[in-house]
Hints:
Radius of gyration: 17 Å
Oligomer: single chain
Helix content: 40-55%
CATH superfamily: Adenoviral Proteinase, Chain A
Structural class: alpha/beta
Largest sheet: 5 strands, mixed
Domain Ubiquitin-like protease family profile: 17-183
Protein name: Ubiquitin-like protease family profile domain-containing protein
Number of strands: 7
CATH topology: Adenoviral Proteinase, Chain
Organism: Linum tenue
Keywords: Hydrolase, Protease, Thiol protease
Strand order of the largest sheet: 3-4-5-6-7
Amino acid sequence: MSRSAAADEIILSYDDAVLRQSDLRILSGPRFLNDRIIEFYFSYLSSSSSSFPSEDVLLVPPSITFWISNCPDADSLSEFAQPLKLPERKIVLFPVNDNDDVEVAEGGSHWSLLAYHSGRNVFVHHDSLGGMNKRPARRLYSVLAKLMGKDAAAAEYREHADSPLQQNGYDCGLFVIATARAICSWYDVAAGEEELWFSAVKEQVTKESAGKLRSEIRDLITSLMERRKN
């Protein structure tokens, strides 16, 4: 094994998410989050929320979202998406990346979140850079409207103008995670009382709370690693 391979060894497998040593380094400094870290936290959120395991809410991994958005074959995409049971979900959360090149793994320079609420039949795009990802989000929406059942074909698309904004060029993935967590929390507590999750996102997602997530996720990973050893 080469020195570089050993330095980036697998440190944790959590559901389908596999984390490497380099992911801890990303979380230790002001760096852009990669697919693996977002997939890990989405898996953790799914297993730790009081409403999960649930058939109602689905947090889609970044790699799956990317393929839905960029798959060139509509027939194979429909078959690919069937196990997700998208038409049966009440809430579906998709991390959006601005990479559209299927030949480039973990490309792109910005993350945002597209959230679907079946009861309101609406897709809401939360972008911490004020709409920078509008084009890839709309592309994803146009594909999903055909995959998520007959009602979704007429679904509304919204750019949430009041989405919390990042103050740097690298915290977008943290804002995606923080927003997803706020929406899941809203669904646990207030889904029957409020039409949508906007108040929960406004209250829970700030530049301070998103910034703290970096160390929270790192500490969570190290804690799970220690637990697996014992």
